């Protein structure tokens, strides 16, 4: 008796008895945007709001103030080790940032229980697709490992304007596939009950997006 | 033009008035109409029921019947049967190893047009009242038959011609693009599902308040009309060729006696 | 060239939940009587149809994406052996383990051993069609391992006694909010006894129930949406975050993957991540998409397993017409637009795969001659709405007709009908035989239709037929047949105008030139229709 692998591959080869020769795929869909940056940002904002994400426009000067305001109710929040410290408000008596080292097996990483106990997470992002309202995290130092943007209930995500593209092909082209990738399009949601979209199930129920100029 | 009428089997046997109406419209435009007597059926009933072997002689009969005649185009008052010619006949002939018939069937299919296609795309008709003298003072709704819509890609051709008929008041049904539940032998092999589909269709038709439901395939209209009749609905079904053929001088009468039914199910 | 001429390979069908257990018409008949189900399905399918229409029509290149998607999948199937080996190489090189399963049973066995090796009795699960196909949950339960469904709809189905999924995307589409509230009140320990039927509150109850499971269970089971051959990358799309929980927090992840789920390159994701969510939930993008390439130290499961499963897929691949069913990306658009699915519901299809795609997939995976799979290809009016909606352009109506041919051949091969002359198959054969004879000769049609006036005897004073016997009686269960005319068109024509010559010679009109000259007329006719009779929708 042959092993499963050889048997399955043998079956496949036998099933392709007619040696089908389909044509090379044609990629006539849009691969490069023909829109200007301002218009692309407008589209992104429109899509994000449609998904019930909150959107803010900030600059290097105003971002810390905005994050301060968004963290109003938080006491502890987590940030990845590579996040630009200048974006963050000063710790106060009632609120402090906790830095995650980025590797669960090494010191300085929060356990899942600890992550479950923090109130929020602040990260940057790698690339955002305006047409679909999608923000891509690619495990870069300012984004951290996957668990930190998943377990806390509130995600404040910074989208630098230069990372915004219009189309999905432009988005995919900017990704490093060797590192874990998470695409986020609005807060966690379900449509499983009568196809009514409800924001907030297991992932973060609040998504604040800061578009940083 | 010399136009060969492909009546389709169901029109021939059950709705000769639809073929007559088609002839009347074609002749009004000055075309010569001929009827290849050897014709029978497009073979769709066999093919769609999975009886491919039995479909083959039917395909051969159709191809032979039309090849015996000289004509410019063939025209049929059916989207479904016309679609079947190009879509299924060559496949059935190929399957039987008869390449000559397959080629001939494809050629014939390329020269066969559904009525609204012929009127608009070949004759350039865009206004039934003005160019055909069509007149039908009724409130009408329209069922878009699936095969015309999705296999022939007729778009709104049939509906548009109906809407330009003189005196006609038009109203569109909800879920216009949903199947009426006919589906050939599906209608009795899956009778209950088909019955549920036509019940919804009939309900939407009645909601429009139309006195007439028209369409481009008598098979669907027979299904819809049969369900309306069972419900004792006053709404009548007529083929759109009959509406186009109707004129002020010679109007189509639809408000005939509504027969009394012995209660069905 | 036919398959037999070349020596069609002997195919191995799959096992598991890929069978219709009773004739579709009978199952459907029962389901149609369930008014609540009809209402739930009608509401849900209409809603999702509208959403899908909106997000597919807003893209100027939707048809280009469909074309690309279809062509990419055709490439995958034509080179499936090569891509699978390439995927295995890359997945393994990046720290993953690849297992091969000939059928559903073997796949379940592999998963069981892997779970037992971790020494756990409870695992978390992401909604997966592949594990529904293999019946994994029930199998694991026999060995004392409890699989927790974490997708909300699957959770509703799992908590609802003896319930099973009825839709690929929305497995609990047959349940409305009140039914779900009642299930949650009954089954979720510690839930608010006054839980309302507000979907947001119901989702909150699910979060409450599953949070602890996510934080503690060490093994998760998933399916996969796309596996990338040239990198070994896996992709899962989801909405709720339960997927991310299962893909990120456990130590061990076991992924079931049908052998057909591959894409050649990462670039292909740019096509499929557009096609899938818009076709599926009718969203521009689903809330979460996860992609991972092997093991990442310190981030996510360190034990990654994938089980590559055949279970009848190679049998589908052997059929030239039917193999396009393998291109399916499980979006469920076909069932959302299907008028038969909308009325009969997903359970009526028996198999894990309902709707139009199920009607062509189950008979091919499990064999058309097995159980009542042969009734599935007939569960369609061939309206074609599924083909138009399919993001990878699977010509479902063509495959349905092709499989009907196989069903008839299989049934003929069985010989005598058990039911004798009352057997519907016998009656169908008789109808088709008679029609073939009739339609093989125009002369015979002419003679036969001379008998039309006789049929008036049947219609009687009602001028219609309200009851037919046998198989065709299905027609008159719901409709009348009009009174036949007194003469057929052919006989009338022959009598009145039979003298036209067949051959007249001369040159023929250039039809193509006429069509070219009239190419603006379709738009013109539509504009005139709009002007003459604007659409006024009533009673909506």
From TrEMBL, chain A:
Pfam families: LUD_dom. Residues 113-212 form the LUD domain. Transmembrane segments: none annotated. InterPro entries: FTHF_cligase-like_sf (IPR024185), LUD_dom (IPR003741), NagB/RpiA_transferase-like (IPR037171). Gene3D superfamilies: NagB/RpiA/CoA transferase-like. Signal peptide: none annotated. It comes from the Bacteria. This is LUD domain-containing protein. It comes from Rothia endophytica. The lineage of its organism: Bacteria, Bacillati, Actinomycetota, Actinomycetes, Micrococcales.
